[in-house]
TrEMBL record:
Domain (Aminoacyl-transfer RNA synthetases class-II family profile): residue spans on this chain: 33-341
Protein name: Proline--tRNA ligase
Subunit structure: Homodimer.
Keyword Methyltransferase attached: no
Top-level taxon: Bacteria
PROSITE patterns, A to Z: AA_TRNA_LIGASE_II
A Pfam family that the UniProt record links to this protein: tRNA-synt_2b
Catalytic activity: tRNA(Pro) + L-proline + ATP = L-prolyl-tRNA(Pro) + AMP + diphosphate
Family (UniProt): Belongs to the class-II aminoacyl-tRNA synthetase family. ProS type 2 subfamily.
Compartmental location: Cytoplasm
GO BP annotations, alphabetical order: prolyl-tRNA aminoacylation
Function (record text): Catalyzes the attachment of proline to tRNA(Pro) in a two-step reaction: proline is first activated by ATP to form Pro-AMP and then transferred to the acceptor end of tRNA(Pro).
Alphabetic keyword roster: Aminoacyl-tRNA synthetase, ATP-binding, Cytoplasm, Ligase, Nucleotide-binding, Protein biosynthesis
RNA sequence: CGGGGCGUGGCGCAGCCUGGUAGCGCGCUUGUUUUGGGUACAAGAGGCCCCCGGUUCGAGUCCGGGCGCCCCGACCA
């Protein structure tokens, strides 16, 4: 993208409504614009980040055998009356009436719809297990939206739903999701620690929240350092083997981790002092097992091996995709702006042309840009160098390829790494290789 | 939903108390200048002062009603 033609309205001053750092930076960097309280329009750069996050989540869901579908945003009230939640959900649900006076709602979640879809198609235990997911906009009419996209009313979420014929199968599905989550967040370049969550009336240990560690997080967190030391991508877990899944699950849940509501000071004492980590976290994912709650209430059963019908066991697994954009910024920024982790950055690198019009400088910039036009943003604007440095820092591109007449005359490109501030000078060919390698 | 605040060019704000026909900084346009960390000067463009009603000779300003947005709390992916 050439910045001179990009729809990327950057702000020098912070809009009054933005309080927290991620909200301020998202507005200043031109990632989003608010259109109503808690509702945002995503501009090109912000959308690229959103899509990057969704892409990682999809790849990890696909990897564990979940299948993507796409359910609508609007749902019939009838569906929710069957589960009993239409009346139970409360004013957070946005209710709508169509021209025929039929009651609809803008979905805050999709358990009812997926259960109904599943039940309409699957009739035998032989077709289980199944895990279906989708990435869709949801709406919850929060009393008080705030924190930009982190607590919006409309938000993009990945939600997955597993159907199994036994409790043991449901547990395996749950553990596969846990692995997918740990891998997803690690790939996004952030640390998200799974914490035991309140399981409510169902009980058991099959409910975890994933919190990204950030000083501005809404919950206090306590966890064993081993949870942030593990490389989940390197672990070999056999997704089809229950023993392997169990061993993996043990490695995760064997270490203490809890939010302040669930914190157990006595157990905390058993963690060696040097491995105790305390901080704050932002919830970006939640996985839980809920058994036959919906299959039963909605009368969705399948035939078992003995010919008798039974209610499949379900679990549900959510990731706040749009919230993650804000949460990642909360976890990764400095005074100058955003510091995007590689994998989610809107562009891999920015090319800063310090003197548009200078023949040698333009030539090098154009060569760099042409090597990967979709992965690079080229600051070819007729602005001063200082403006470009500041905007590039604000936008948080992992790499800045700085080209000015001084270096260009010698065929040199200066590379600045946003995360460390480290600078190095290299030849054009070396810079091209760097772009191609993506690191 | 309780408490508080705000709504004035694109953004940040002043003006309102004490009514007299709208101003500042940034941004934008043009020119000159500058050219490796938000350059300087000059000349410009741009405003239904959130909306409706009332008081008044006259309302951005006072009064009433509405709408929108933000902050604290309770609540939450």
């Amino acid at each position: 993208m050439r910045l001179s033609r990009a729809f990327q309205p950057m702000l020098k001053e912070t809009p009054a409504e933005a309080q927290i750092v991620s909200h301020r930076l998202m507005l200043r960097a031109g990632l989003v614009r608010q259109t109503a309280s808690g509702i945002y329009a995503w501009l090109p750069a912000g959308l690229r980040v959103l899509n990057n996050i969704a892409r990682i989540v999809r790849e990890e869901q696909d990897r564990i055998g979940a299948q993507e579908v796409l359910m609508p945003t609007l749902q019939s009230a009838e569906l929710w009356k069957r589960s009993g939640r239409y009346d139970a959900y409360g004013p957070e649900m946005l209710r709508i009436r169509d021209r025929h006076e039929r009651d609809l709602l803008y979905g805050p979640t999709n358990e009812e719809m997926i259960t109904d879809l599943f039940g309409g198609a699957v009739k035998s235990y032989r077709e289980l297990p199944q895990t279906l997911y989708h990435v869709q906009w949801k709406f919850r009419d929060e009393i008080r939206p705030r924190f930009g996209v982190m607590r919006g009313r409309e938000f993009l979420m990945k939600d997955a739903y597993s159907f199994d014929s036994s409790y043991e199968g449901a547990v395996a599905s749950y553990r596969r999701q846990m692995l997918a989550y740990l891998r997803s967040f690690q790939r996004m370049g952030v640390r998200a620690v799974p914490m035991v969550a309140d399981t409510g009336p169902i009980g058991g240990d099959l409910s975890h929240e994933f919190l990204i560690l950030a000083p501005t997080g809404e919950s206090g967190v306590f966890y064993d350092a081993s949870l942030e030391e593990q490389d989940w991508l390197a672990q070999s877990v056999d997704l089809d083997d229950e023993a392997s899944l169990e061993a993996f699950f043990g490695r995760v849940t064997g270490s203490y981790a809890a939010t302040d509501e669930m914190h157990d000071a006595t157990k905390w004492e058993t963690v060696p002092a040097e491995r105790r980590r305390e901080g704050r976290g932002i919830e970006v994912g939640h996985i839980f097992y809920f058994g036959t709650k919906y299959t039963e209430s909605m009368g969705i059963s399948v035939s078992g091996a003995d010919g008798a019908p039974f209610f499949p066991q379900m679990g549900s697994y959510g990731v706040g995709i749009s919230r993650l954009v804000g949460a990642i910024i909360e976890a990764s920024h400095d005074d100058a702006g955003i510091i995007w982790p590689e994998q989610v950055a809107p562009w891999r690198a920015a090319i800063l042309n310090l003197k548009p019009g200078d023949q040698a400088t333009d030539a090098i910039c154009e060569t760099l840009y042409a090597s990967a036009p979709d992965a690079l943003v080229y600051d070819d604007r007729a602005d001063r160098a200082g403006v470009k440095f500041n905007d590039a820092d604000l936008m948080g591109h992992p790499l800045q390829l700085i080209v000015g007449p001084r270096g260009a005359a010698a065929g040199r490109v200066e590379v600045k790494r946003r995360a460390t501030g480290e600078r190095s000078e290299m030849s054009l060919d070396e810079a091209l290789a760097l772009i191609a390698s993506g690191t």
